[in-house]
Amino acid sequence: MEQDVLGVKARADVKRTLAERIADVMTAAFGSMPFLIVNGVWFLVWIVINLGLIPGIEPFDPFPFGLLTMIVSLEAIMLAIVVLISQNRAAKIADLREEVDLQVDVITERELTKLLELLVTLMRRQGIDLSHDAELRAMLQPTDEKAIEAALEEQVVKET
C-alpha cells in the first residue's frame, strides 16, 4: 500500500518510535478484561496466602500487606505512564487531523464562494435580477479567516 493512500493515523503509526509501539501494545493489553482478571486473581491469591488461610504455606507479607501495597503502587505508576504515552501520541494525531480538516474547510469555503460568483455572473447574463437577495450578497463576501481565528483564540483564553 502506498503512503499516499494511508490515512493520518496510519502514517503516524508507521512513524512511531519503538517506545511508542511498546506503549501502544502495552496499553492495548492492560486495557483488557484478561489483564483485569489476572490482576484480580493475583491479588486474591496474595491476600489468601498472606492471611495464612492455606495450610503449609507461610505468609511472607502479613497484613497490612506492605509489599503488596508497594507493588500495586509501582504498577499503577507504570500503567499511568504507559497510558499517558499512548494518549499523548493519540492527541498529536487528533491535532494533525484537526489542522488538515481546517485547511480543507478553508479551501472549500474559497471554492464555494468562487462557484457562487460564477453562478451569479451566469444568472446576470441571463437577465435574472439578484439585487434583492441579501443572503446571497452575504454569501459572496469572502470569509474573514483571521476574525474567526481571533474569536476562537479569545474563547480559548476565556475558558482557561
Q: Percent of residues in beta strands?
A: under 5%
The portion of residues assigned to helices is over 70%
Q: Order of helices and strands, N to C?
A: HHHHHH
- The number of helices is 6
The separation of the N and C termini measures 43 Å
Offer a concise description of the structure.
The protein is mainly α. It is built from six helices and no strands.
Characterise the protein shown here.
This protein has 160 residues and is an all-alpha fold. The protein contains 6 helices and no strands. The chain has helices at residues 8-14, 18-30, 33-50, 66-125, 134-140, 145-159. Helix 2 (18-30) crosses helix 4. The longest helix has 60 residues, at 66-125. The mean pLDDT is 89.
How are the secondary structure elements laid out?
Elements (H helix, E strand, L loop, with lengths): L7 H7 L3 H13 L2 H18 L15 H60 L8 H7 L4 H15 L1
Helix pairs in contact: 2-4
Key terms:
single chain; 160 residues; mainly alpha; 6 helices; rod-shaped; 75% helix
